[in-house]
Amino acid sequence: MTLVPIAAALDAPLPTFRADPLGRLPGTNDDDPFLRLAAGWLVGYPKNTATAYRRDLEGWAKWCSSLGVHPLVAERHHVDLWVRHLTTEPQPRTERPASPATVARKLSALSGFYDYGVHDAEVLTHSPVASVRRPKVSDESQAIGLTADELKRLLVVASAHSGRSAALVTLLTFCGLRISEALGADVRDYGYDHGHRVLKVTRKGGKAARVALAPPVVRALDEYLDGRDGGPLFLSASGGRYGYHVAYEQLGRLCRSAGLPKGVTPHSLRHSYATESLRLGAALQDVQDALGHADPRTTRRYDRSRNNLDRSPNYLLASALTAEADSLPDT
Predict the structure, then answer these.
(1) Which has more pLDDT, 289 or 87?
(2) Is 270 among the residues known to form the active site?
(3) From the candidates 203, 270, 271, 301, which is the catalytic residue?
């Protein structure tokens, strides 16, 4: 099994391990035990989930390296320092501190990794994350949402930039896909189902789903593909699959050209899809299904207008009951 590539220097003093449990992990005695443990843990997850968890492990390994501590001998106070760093210092990709939801997700990944090392691999004796306090996550998504006018400006800029940008931004805007779902699709996943143009994507957890494509998405994809019938849906300049980081950076440039707020990410388009769909009257359950959320409370976090008093059911009930009362015959 190929060891997980972790983009961080692992030059801190190595801990001592029991030879038998360590020998059951992928790799050899010449490989760093952190990489071996990471490879054993990640192999049980779908590709997209494993990729996200690997990024979290990379961030943690880099932090440990900056402290001169090997990740497998880290203690709780090292994790607490990492949490403080995440929540108070601007992060490289967003240029602002990590949100409570992001920190909670990273801690969840780290907790799963160390629990695997303690209970399954039996290489570690304790988890430094076990008693770390998780940040309280707001009921409202912290992602930057865009208005309908801002989404229109972004679509115009993307269309003027290139066929690939137009297709990707249109797909994210009108379908609310995760960026990993869009970039992980192949041309063969683009087809028909009961008269609908659809795209088959792989959701979190490896579950397959068919996504209905509105006419603007179909036009943008058809123009971009230009008859191509194989390979990844979105291609890089070298002909391979369009990478997450490159797409992320390209979206940032498009947003700047469109004069959009700083900090917009691919997830902002997913957030905006939910908010605008609900504002226009789409049923919560339909939006939940479209986004692939298992819990409707997750979908509700994206609805920025949910506290709008104009939507209060009080008015509907009062209108209905007073109309019925007015229609009763006099006695």
Answers:
(1) 87
(2) yes
(3) 270
Query: Does residue 303 have a pLDDT over 90?
Result: no
- Classify the phi-psi angles of 95: left when phi > 0, otherwise alpha if psi is within -120 to 50, otherwise beta: left
Q: What number of other Cβ atoms are within 10 A of residue 121's Cβ?
A: 19
Q: For residue 315, indicate whether it is catalytic.
A: no
**Is 302 considered catalytic here?**
yes
Residues 6+ away with beta carbon under 8 Å from 246: 236
User: How does residue 281 score in pLDDT terms, banded at 50, 70 and 90?
Assistant: confident
CA atoms within 13 A on the CB side of 81: 11
Query: Using an 8 Å Cβ cutoff, are 12 and 64 in contact?
Result: yes
Instruction: Give pLDDT tens digits for 4-33.
Output: 666 666 666 666 666 678 788 888 888 889
Please, which contacts does 248-256 make with residues 24 or more away whose CB atoms are closer than 8 Å?
248/93, 248/179, 250/165, 251/169, 254/154, 254/157, 254/158, 254/161, 254/165, 254/169, 255/154
Q: Which domains does the chain have, with CATH numbers?
A: 19-120 (no CATH), 148-300 (1.10.443.10)
Beta strands in 173-256 (DSSP E): 190-193, 196-202, 208-212
More confident residue, 270 or 298: 270
Quote the pTM value: 0.60
